[in-house]
Write a structure and sequence with these properties.
With 241 residues, the protein is of the alpha/beta class. Helices cover 29% and strands 32% of the residues. The radius of gyration is 20 Å and the shape is globular.
């Protein structure tokens, strides 16, 4: 069964938030809403895959919407984002960050329902892995997989937000089912998502991960692993200058 939509709303005017929340609650869909009064509060708790949709005011006190979305895109390039604005005039730089919609406040009911429908469809089509754990199958978007470890006959999946899943399986088979890059086989027991690598520790010969933890790299492949990481980062910079 597909879970409800998890939505972040970032709006510095409580009255506007309440109007929007009412429309979301009355949409007929199961929604879980996290409210943030300004952008830095949202970024502080944000990680890839946490939300299915982010709605935020383009002009806010403190960190504004454009700067907030720039921070979001450093972590998650795929989450749908919609701007809320008090007028039809949009800053040109706002178009740079792959925004799904612009809604003039207060948004209309049909606009909100269309936006939720689009977010649902985008979630359904995200590249994902189907993991059998605790007696049931779970579909996990690839962007949430930080790294995978082979532990005897089990696979440990380390996800964004500190979540861990365990299933039976072989890392060789998983490696063949995911795109490379961003995934890279750096060790016989580890498959890493380069999008979640923070740095490479030359002394310990490990990848340092963005949400904590390390992934081991086989000594004989150190140079290749470092090159794969750097090539991936340069490619990301070219795509998102």
């Amino acid at each position: 069964m597909m879970r409800g939509l998890k939505i972040a709303v970032c709006e510095d005017e409580p009255e506007e938030y309440e109007k929007l929340k009412r429309l979301l609650d009355e949409s007929g869909r199961e929604v879980e809403i996290d409210y943030f009064p300004e952008g830095s509060a949202l970024l502080k708790s944000f990680y890839a895959g946490k939300y299915d949709l982010v709605l935020l005011d383009i002009y806010m006190k403190g960190m504004g919407g454009i700067e907030t979305v720039a921070g979001i895109r450093q972590t998650d390039e795929e989450v749908p984002v919609a701007y809320l604005t008090g007028s039809g005039d949009f800053a040109l730089e706002a178009y740079h960050y792959h925004v799904l919609r612009y809604l003039v406040k207060p948004p209309k009911k049909e606009e909100v329902e269309e936006l939720l429908s689009m977010a649902e469809k985008m979630r359904e089509h995200l590249p994902s892995l189907t993991i059998r754990t605790d007696g049931r199958e779970r579909k996990v978007p690839l962007r949430q997989v930080r790294y995978i470890e082979q532990n005897n006959r089990n696979l440990n999946y380390y996800l964004t937000g500190g979540e861990e899943l365990t299933s039976r399986g072989r890392l060789d088979e998983v490696e063949q089912s995911v795109p490379r890059p961003p995934f890279y086989r750096c060790h016989k027991s580890f498959l890493v998502n380069l999008a979640h690598v923070k740095d490479f520790d030359e002394d310990l010969n490990v990848f340092e991960m963005s949400e904590g933890g390390v992934v081991y790299v086989r000594r004989q492949s150190t140079r290749e692993a470092v090159r794969a990481f750097r090539d991936f980062m340069f490619a990301q910079l070219r795509e998102n200058p």
